[in-house]
Amino acid sequence: MILTTLNDCSRYEHLHPSFKTLFDYLKSHNVKDMELGRIEINGDELFINNVLVDAVAKENQPLELHEQYIDVHVLFEGDEMVGWLPKDKIKTYSKPYDAASECALTTDAPSAYFSLMPLDMVIVYPEDAHAPIIGNGKIRKMIAKVKL
């Protein structure tokens, strides 16, 4: 997992062939003001889920994992906390990995939490179980899906 800001994202362009495309897109488009929903960049290889969601209480948000995509979260508005646990520490799955939803869920508790401020960015790899959108009120953010 990488915790950074949108302003510093170019430092991580070399970590995946699609990162530069994504970061250039984010710098040249005001995603925050774009329509909610899926934003196509490169088909299923690279796309954005642009969302406005109700935050979830810490005790009600399970950790999730993905196998086929790296998640890149950018917070635009609201107060968001994210829980984290390394995949190798998971003991119990409440939902095994399902390729159709590209997600698995676990009942394990995060080993760490961190808070995001607007324009903070989190890059989450398949080895990072994460519990996003923890907080109160509305959260406006985007989640880019980068195919491995």
Written account of the structure:
The protein has about 150 residues and is mainly β. It has a single domain (about 1-145), classed as YhcH/YjgK/YiaL (Jelly Rolls). It is about 5% helix and about 50% strand. It has one helix and twelve strands. The strands form three sheets. Strands 1-10-5-12-3-2 form a six-stranded antiparallel β-sheet. A three-stranded antiparallel β-sheet has the order 4-8-7, with no helix packed on it. Strand 7 (about 95-100) and strand 8 (about 105) form a beta hairpin. The mean pLDDT is about 95.
| Beta-strand segment tally | 12
3D shape: globular
Low-confidence stretches: none
* Computed structural class: mainly beta
Instruction: List the strand order in the largest sheet.
Output: 1-10-5-12-3-2
- CATH names the topology as Jelly Rolls
- Going by CATH, the architecture would be Sandwich
Helix content: under 10%
Number of helices: 1
Radius of gyration: 15 Å
What is the ordering of alpha helices and beta strands?
EHEEEEEEEEEEE
The main sheet comes to: 6 strands, antiparallel
Beginning-to-end CA distance, first to last residue = 15 Å
CATH superfamily membership: YhcH/YjgK/YiaL
Quick check: average pLDDT?
97
Strand content: over 45%
What is the count of structural domains? 1
So what's the CATH class? Answer: Mainly Beta
Map the helices and strands:
Blueprint: E1 2-5, H1 19-28, E2 37-42, E3 46-54, E4 63-65, E5 69-77, E6 80-86, E7 93-98, E8 103-106, E9 112-116, E10 120-124, E11 128-134, E12 138-147
Antiparallel strand pairs: 1-10, 2-3, 3-12, 4-8, 5-10, 5-12, 6-9, 6-11, 7-8
